[in-house]
């Protein structure tokens, strides 16, 4: 039987964990204190303070109302996130369709709240949200809407060069919900300490990177990854076809998504090398698309420099989930399957029952992630982190 709380790490490991926790706490505390003080009237009047907080809420626009765009709206509204969605742009979707697909979701269930339309506006829990059908970001009136941040979730503007078009139309900053070749990438819980507020366009990397990076960081800090292979067993995405159809790049992805297991590529390993430079060149990866609607898993098989039993690895992850990775990583110690994690807000859920070792230096680590909901929670977290600066 696994002894979860038998901590057998060295003093060096404990010091490292405490240092990481302290650094993360300092970063978040200082930024959120700054935001709080900037929004406080100093008069002691509660109503005035609430009014000021409303003024200081980040105004967010969404470009691309697909799976991630709609998840962002859901999370912001259903969980009362401290941000205000003011507009949605999608050239391929009428306002009526936006309302319908927000209200009803085959994977995550009905929207918790009221959704309607008023002319060309979405009405969500009584709040009107502008809708647009512009193909080019430069034509979206972000300036008139006083938008602070654009969630770029269309999948079309994934480079800093193309995403900057949102800045030209008046947005203050842009967050790309995909890996980027030229925009700096940030993974919550991993490399926020390197965030540079002068950067106007950043990337939240991919859902797979957000699962892999925290796991790899903890394992590497404790046991040092020498090299590794990662496979993501990934649910289907909206770009795939239900029946065989032509595909321009990866021909396999044109085959019927509901009939096949489809090998594909993933940039997650390379992205991990960008957010964790110490692992650059040490990991490579592939993807296998499988016919489930949501929730994916990663299989990280790696060689370690330091010997570690599976209990050692579990203890390190338990320490992290209760410390610097709280809310980012979780641990599952029961007989779970993919549907158990639909709606999970964690980036990475380590499966201790499914993970195994050949020896103390060669291990296979399994972790689950809701590639829609969990990932989008990090997108919202990143916006809150970016906005926690004195500017009001």
Mind explaining what this structure looks like?
Helix content is 31%, strand content 22%. With 392 residues, it is of the alpha/beta class. The chain has two domains: 22-205 and 377-387, NAD(P)-binding Rossmann-like Domain (Rossmann fold, 3-Layer(aba) Sandwich); 208-371, Dihydrodipicolinate Reductase, domain 2 (2-Layer Sandwich). The model is unreliable at 1-54 (pLDDT under 50).
Per-chain topology:
Elements: H1 11-39, H2 46-56, E1 59-63, H3 67-78, E2 84-89, H4 95-103, E3 115-118, E4 121-124, E5 127-132, E6 149-152, H5 160-163, H6 165-168, E7 173-176, E8 201-203, H7 207-223, E9 225-235, E10 262-264, H8 268-275, E11 283-290, E12 296-304, H9 310-321, E13 329-332, E14 348-351, E15 356-359, E16 362-369, H10 373-387
Parallel strand pairs: 1-2, 1-6, 2-5, 6-7, 7-8, 9-11, 13-14
Antiparallel strand pairs: 3-4, 4-5, 9-12, 10-11, 12-16, 14-16, 15-16
Helix pairs in contact: 1-2, 3-10, 7-8, 7-9
């Amino acid at each position: 039987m696994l002894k979860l709380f038998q901590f057998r790490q060295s003093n060096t490991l404990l010091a490292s964990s405490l240092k990481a926790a302290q650094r993360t706490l300092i970063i978040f505390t200082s930024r959120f204190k700054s935001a709080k003080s900037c929004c406080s009237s100093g008069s002691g009047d509660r109503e005035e303070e609430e009014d000021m907080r409303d003024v200081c809420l980040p105004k967010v626009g969404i470009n691309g109302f697909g799976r991630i765009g709609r998840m962002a709206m859901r999370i912001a509204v259903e969980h009362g996130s401290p941000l205000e969605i003011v507009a949605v742009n999608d050239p391929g979707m009428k306002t009526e369709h936006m309302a319908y697909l927000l209200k009803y979701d085959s994977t995550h269930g009905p929207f918790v709240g009221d959704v309607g339309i008023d002319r060309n506006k979405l009405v969500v829990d009584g709040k009107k949200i502008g809708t647009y059908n512009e193909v080019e970001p430069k034509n979206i009136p972000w300036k008139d809407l006083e938008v602070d941040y654009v969630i770029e979730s269309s999948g079309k503007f994934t480079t800093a060069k193309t995403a900057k078009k949102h800045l030209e139309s008046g947005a203050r900053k842009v967050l790309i919900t995909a890996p980027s070749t030229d925009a700096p990438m940030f993974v919550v819980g991993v490399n926020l300490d390197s965030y540079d507020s002068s950067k106007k366009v950043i990337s939240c990397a991919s859902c797979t990177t957000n699962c892999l990076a925290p796991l790899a960081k903890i394992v590497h800090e404790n046991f040092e990854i020498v090299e590794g292979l990662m496979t993501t067993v990934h649910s289907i995405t909206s770009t795939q076809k239900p029946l065989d159809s032509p595909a321009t790049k990866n021909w396999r992805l044109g085959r019927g998504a509901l009939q096949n297991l489809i090998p594909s590529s993933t940039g997650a390993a390379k992205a991990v090398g960008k957010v964790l430079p110490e692992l650059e060149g040490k990991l490579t990866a592939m993807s296998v698309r499988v016919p489930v609607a949501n929730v994916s898993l990663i299989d990280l098989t790696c060689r370690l420099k330091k010997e570690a039993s599976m209990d050692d690895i579990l203890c390190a992850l338990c320490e992290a989930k209760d410390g610097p990775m709280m809310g980012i990583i979780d641990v599952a110690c029961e007989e779970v399957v993919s549907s158990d994690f639909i709606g999970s807000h964690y980036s990475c859920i380590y499966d201790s029952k499914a993970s195994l070792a050949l020896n103390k230096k060669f291990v296979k680590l399994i972790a689950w992630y809701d590639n829609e909901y969990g990932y989008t929670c990090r997108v919202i977290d990143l916006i809150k982190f970016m906005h926690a600066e004195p500017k009001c």
